[in-house]
Each structure stands twice: as C-alpha cells, then as structure tokens.
Amino acid sequence: MSRIDKIIDFLNQQPKDSFLRHALALEYIKIGEDIKARDLFIAILTDAPDYVGSYYHLAKCLEKLQETALAIEWYEKGMAAAKLAKDDHAYRELQAAYEDLVY
Q1: CA 23 to each of CA 57, 90, 95, 99, 101: distance values in angstroms, whole numbers, following the listed order
Q2: Which H or E run includes 86?
Q3: Cα–Cα distance for residue pair 37/98, rounded to 1 Å
Q4: pLDDT for res 1
Q5: Are the CB atoms for 41 and 57 separated by under 8 Å?
Q6: CB neighbourhood size of 25 (10 A)
Q7: Backbone angles phi, psi at 8, to 5 degrees
Q8: What is the C-alpha separation between 48 and 82, in angstroms, rounded?
Q9: Which of 3, 24, 57, 87 sees the fewest Cβ atoms within 10 Å?
Q10: Could you tell me which of 83, 81, 82, 79 has the C-alpha nearest to residue 102?
Q11: How far apart are CA 3 and CA 67, in angstroms?
Q12: What is 24-55 written as a DSSP string?
C-alpha cells in the first residue's frame, strides 16, 4: 500500500483532518499531481484558515502552476494568518517567498 493509499484510508475515517489532508497534498506534489495538491490546500485553508503551514505550500504550488497572481494573494493571506497566530517563523518564511516572487 502506498503512502497516498494509507493517508486516504485515514482520511476516510477523519475526512476533515487538516494534518492528513496537508500530508496528502504534499504527497501529490511529490508525484507531480499539482492540481490535486492545489485543490486540497485550498480546501484545507477554506475549512481551517488558521492552519498556517498550508499557505506556503499552496502558494509555491500556485507558482509552479504559473498562477502568480493567486500565489501572491495566498502569500498575503498566509502572512496575515501567521501574524494572527503569532507564528514568526512561518511569517518570515512566507514573507521571504512573497518578496522573491514580487520583487
């Protein structure tokens, strides 16, 4: 059974678990399923906008898909969420990626 299959099995028991959905999205990125990953990250952040770890990966995925305007928007949302959560590390990581893209 692959990692993806295992995660999906867990998700069948806990469909809204942000950690499991995030892990599945990362696995999709590893195999080049960027659109599936993008859609899953968006679903996570729609349900749990305080799940700060997904903003960076979503924006990077959007960059890879050449959806630059959306990537910028999600970096900005992520920085706001990180600031609200007082997660300085995530904020700096998002800000650096944002600045690399914008400037």
Answers
A1: 11, 17, 23, 26, 25
A2: none
A3: 20
A4: 85
A5: yes
A6: 26
A7: -60, -40
A8: 13
A9: 3
A10: 79
A11: 28
A12: HHHHHHHTT-HHHHHHHHHHHHHH-TT-THHH
Q: Look at domain 3-102 and name its CATH class.
A: mainly alpha
Hey, what amino acid is at 57?
Answer: H
For residues 101 and 71, the answer to whether their CB atoms sit within 8 Å is yes
Residue ranges of the chain whose pLDDT lies below 50 = none
Q: Which two tokens stand for residue 68?
A: 């630059």
Q: What is the pLDDT of residue 47?
A: 97
The answer to whether 40 and 11 are in contact (CB under 8 A) is no
The pLDDT tens digits of the residues spanning 24-47 come to 999 999 999 999 999 999 999 999
